[in-house]
Specification:
Blueprint: H1 4-16, H2 19-26, H3 30-44, E1 49-51, E2 56-58, H4 60-83, E3 90-97, H5 105-115, E4 119-126, H6 128-136, E5 142-147, E6 155-167, E7 178-183, H7 188-199, E8 204-210, H8 213-221, E9 227-230, E10 238-240, H9 242-245, E11 252-259, H10 265-276, H11 282-287
Parallel strand pairs: 3-4, 3-5, 7-8
Antiparallel strand pairs: 1-2, 5-11, 6-9, 6-10, 6-11
Helix pairs in contact: 1-2, 1-3, 1-4, 2-3, 5-10
Amino acid sequence: MFDPLPLRTFVSVAETLNFTRSAELLGLSQPTVSQHIRKLEKAAGRHLVTRDTRAVQLTDNGDALLGFARVILAAQNQAESYFTGSAMRGRLRFGTADDLALTQLPQILRDFRQLYPEINLELTVSQSGALVRRLNAGQLDLVFIKQEPGAERGQLVRRDRMVWLGHKQLSLEAGQPVPLIVYQAPSLSRTVAINALESTERTWRITCNVKEVNGVLAAVRAGIGVAVFPQSLIPPDLAQIAALHGLPPLGDVDFVLLDNPGAAHEPARALVSAILRRPGNVAAVQSGR
């Protein structure tokens, strides 16, 4: 009754509440995304999504279908895993940068645990630099981190743009230092922010040092300053502010997977495959999902 391809599109729309963003993540055109939603609505005989020029919302029936869609897609993945003989056991010590946990990663990990219940998944959430150090020390098997574009090491998951993030009502006074909310050093986003401002001779001051992403978002919501953040991870109540305040461009960032060559290969490869196949990531786009 329900085709998995439109269901994947519907889940993406439900998670982003944005047809354009979903089209970009899925590697589809926006008319194709709309076509998939209409196909599901025809199959269900119900309206699933309402949208106008300002907002996209799920109807009550859309909320109901979202739960079913996730179950259906997880079951499909389980069936694929079973019949391709991919069941396995072992331990996987996985680390992820804390802001990347704002992506589809939690759902990926839930699905992964359902597909491979015999794998003991140990999760570490930290900053990218700390995770790489633990990987190099043999304390982790696989990490999902951010790094500068074009680095030789790592499997590219997705390339994103770094942007200036701020509260929608934030006001920056002309000629005054830019108030920065930054991770403690060493930090990629901290370095990117300071280098960009200094390259344009713009003065700055650090108004908040944080250890994790919730601290960044709380400080930005409080109007304490601005932060550098991946564009695809911006919460709906916050905004890009460069155009309003003349802040310099920041460039791109890569989301990558790094593995430990000395770790058990099968569990790590299974999780790498699950992440890459997710809509909007490299393998999913290349396969036309």
